[in-house]
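The record is kept unedited without comment:

——
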Amino acid sequence: MTDPAIELNRVTLELGPRRLLDDVSFTVGNGEFIGVLGPNGAGKTTLMRALLGLVPPAHGTLRVLGQPVTRGHAAIGYMPQVRSTPAAQRLCGRDFVACAVDGHRWGITLARGRTRRAVDDALAIVGALALAGRPLAELSGGERQRLLLAQCLLGQPRLLLLDEPLISLDPNHQAGVVELVRRVQRQLGITVLFSAHELNPLLNAIDRVLYLGNGRAALGTVDEVITPPVLSRLYGAPIDVMRLAGRIFVMSGGVEIDKRDHAHEDDGGHSHSHSHSHSHSHSHSHSHSYQHSAAPGPGPDHLSMARQPDHALARRGIHDV
C-alpha cells in the first residue's frame, strides 16, 4: 500500500496573530487533481508554503509523499503566485526555464551537461518546444504559464503545488492552462494541488475540491462540498446553493457572492507580487456561479471536514475528521 501524497493530522497554521487553519486533518491520495478554493485570507498560499517546509505548523503534523515535511524536497514542483520581472522579459523561453536549474528551483541541481536535455524534456511535455527561442516579452499569458509549468517539471516531481496559475488570464487561456495541467497530470501520474479563486475553470479537471475558510477545511467531491451546510460553516454565514441549467450559484442573503471577494491577494491580505520559484473568517453578501460537470475523484468518496462535528452533516453521513 502506497503512502498518501499529502497528510495533515490536526494541523494549525498561523500567520502572525492570525490563525488560518485550526486543527485541520485531511488526506490527499496519489494521482489526485485537487482544486483548492476559499476566500481571501483563508490560507491557500500558507498551506502550500507549509507543505514546502517554509511555514512550520503551530500544532499537528504534515507529511508529504510519506515523509515528514522538509525544505527542498526534490519531488515537489511549486508555482507560486507570479509576476514577471523586467529582467525575465529579455530571456528566451529555454533560458527562462533553465533559470530554475542549479539552485533556483527547490531541491534541484543538475550538471551543466544535463541541463539542456532536462529543459528540452520539460518543454516537450508541456508542448512548448516552439517557444524555446522566443523572448518572454512576445508571449501571451497562457504561453508563459506553459513555461512556468515546464520549470515545475524539472527533476520529475511527484507532487505539483500550483498557486493561482490562472491569475490575469482570460477565460480561453484559463481553459487552456487547466487542460494542459490535467493532461500532464494524467500523463505523468502525479498529484496536483491547484488553487484558484473560481471553481468554474477547474470543474472538468479536478477529482475533488479542498475548500478553506473560517479556520476549517472541507475536502470532497463538488457535490459533497458545494452545499449550504458545508459552505455556511466555511464562510461563517448562511450560504445557499442553487443549481440551474448546469451551473451552480453560491448565494448569501439572496445575492451572489461577489468575485471581488476573491481578488488576487496573499493570505496576509496584501497584494502579492514576486518572481517565481519552485519546490526545489468573514461573511459575504455576494456569489459565484460554477459550471457543474466534475467527474468523481479516484480518492475516498467522502467529505473530510475539520474541527467540531456538525449535526446536520452527521445526519447526512458526512463526518468531521
